[in-house]
Amino acid sequence: MNRRDILRHGALGAIAYPIASQPWWLGGTPQTATIPERYHRVVLRLDPDCLNLEPSLRYEGNNLDVRGKRNSNGLFQDDGSTVAKRWQQAAEGCAGVFVLRDSLWSQQDHVTRQRAFSPLLPPNWITAASLVATGSLAWQPVFSAPVDDDRAWNKLATPSDLFGSAPKSDSLFKAAIKPARTKDKQPGSAAVQSRNARTTLKFLGSAMNELHSAGKSGDALAVARIGAEISCQSDRRYFTTNGRRRVIPITVTNPSLYEVGEGKGFIAQEHVELNGASEIAKLVSKELLQRRLDDGDIAIERYDISRPSERSNAIQTLEDLIPIHRKSAIESRIWLWVNGPLKQDRKLQGTDATRWVPEFQHEIKAASINHNRLRLFSKPSVDLPKGPSRKDALDRAIIRFQQMDLPLSLNLRTDAFRQVFS
Question: Could you tell me the domains of the chain?
Fold first, then answer.
């Protein structure tokens, strides 16, 4: 199935968007800088209000921070459209912002505690639909009924009754089957969460039905491509088409077993042992990430480059996505998040990647990769000491990371950073 066919496919298919002018870090015009140029490789923590950012710097966003405050009942005060505007404002106010947007529970809006603005079709849902196309997984649609039809939703006995062939979530199931209708003028937390869950599930169910229709001939590639278009359409709607040029969505392509249990990665835990599952997951990964690159930069994580096997896996992924010979509509880049050994059961605590970067860069140089489209990003972030030595420590870190051609991730927000160099 070619791109034109995909763009014509169904109500949930992709919309053809024009390619916007390239942002300054891809060769365009920089925004007005307010700090010395030597600090432009710094990446800061995004301020929760997304205001008064440094226009020449990139930021790492935190979904929980930007969602805003919670009420006493656990619900967020702001709905998804308000949160989306914050992210859009952040993208307009800086050189780029990294956002985690790669799974059901790792996206900008909370699935049950907020009314979602533009839900993401998770990668492992696309893989599930592709497995149905190959015959490795039996088709069962996601349950659908009007959001207010408590009687229909309450008949669901198990997560399988709700999710069908899609990856299952016990917590989302429990939220969806609780009564959504109430006689109270102010519905309680459970009723609101039920309504939010059902609304998102109806969108995801419609997307899965579309993917199933595309895969009836057994064409898993067509399913993967349409799934990628649906996911990217939700990205563009959430951040706006132009905003997506400065938003760098992060995808976990190398999840731990624990993260797979959380719904991360390209294959659900219950589908891992199915026939051909790993090959289909690789197909979906390649199609989704290449499609995302058509809209702007992306980030993939997380590789422990102290381990030769993980360096090899990372290089193979890069050769698939940005080989030397492939041309792109825009020269968007991959930010590869790398690290050293991390503490057990801690995602980003441990040793950063800098000790192994020179060796890894040598291996990358020998690989069939378009090096102009790759940036390494070392984690964990650097912590600066407090007190009068802080600026000297910043300058030393700047020099050290510059020598390795790396950005410098700092555990600082905007005001704290301004105080360091001012």
Answer: 3-112+218-421 (3.20.20)
